[in-house]
């Protein structure tokens, strides 16, 4: 996947970020302070930087400005500051995106993936849009194939359409009605239609409704394909 430099001084948060990012296949390096992060970045440039603002030696906003003085590397800012003026300052200083603490691992992975896709060359970006990666599930929308931990799933046309839709909206709870409308294109079908296909999909993925790993049912709301099992 990508080489990620995490600049974060809090050891608990840093450990959590490492766990989430490595769990999504990224190679992670860390720095505890701002100037250390700058040295690490120039010594071995990463594909993307996750930057905390509350650093002990220099404010993260200044680190961001210094990064922009020497590199176009994508920067995802992690901050506890949710003031609109501060966020505008971050974006104007060169941040590609930001996350307000606390945030979930799934949200971090999704935002990081979006930043990487936007910064990729056009030919690479086209390939990324064709292929969806959610944890160890890989869905190729052009070839209409899905592989789980390297094993191809024997899916029917509708099962593939359903899985690809959920993968494209990973970590979002999708209602059955929305699935009928956007996947089946028949909003007036019964919800049971979705449940039958979900049951078959779970079986082929080696999951059980009571013991989900990737494919979760949120009672009374809908279905969610999670990126961090």
Describe the structure.
With 229 residues, this protein is an alpha/beta fold. It has 2 domains: 117 residues, Rossmann fold; 96 residues, Orthogonal Bundle (Arc Repressor Mutant, subunit A). It contains 9 helices and 11 strands. The strands form 3 sheets. It has a 5-stranded parallel sheet, with helices on both faces. A hairpin with a 2-residue loop joins strand 6 and strand 7. Helix 1 packs across helix 5, helix 7 crosses helix 9 and helix 8 crosses helix 9. The radius of gyration is 20 Å and the shape is elongated. The two termini are 18 Å apart.
Which characteristics define this entry?
45% helix; Rossmann fold; alpha/beta; Arc Repressor Mutant, subunit A
Helix content: 40-55%
In whole angstroms, the N-to-C terminal distance is 18 Å
CATH superfamily of the largest domain: Response regulator
The gyration radius over C-alpha positions equals 20 Å
Structurally, how many domains make up the residues? Answer: 2
Number of helices: 9
Give the helix/strand class. alpha/beta
**Percent of residues in β-strands:** 15-25%
Q: Could you please say which CATH topology of the largest domain applies here?
A: Rossmann fold
The arrangement of helices and strands along the chain is EHEHEHEHEHHEEEEHHHEE
Number of strands: 11
Determine and state the CATH class of the largest domain. Alpha Beta
Please tell me what the overall shape is: elongated
As residue ranges, the low-confidence spans are none
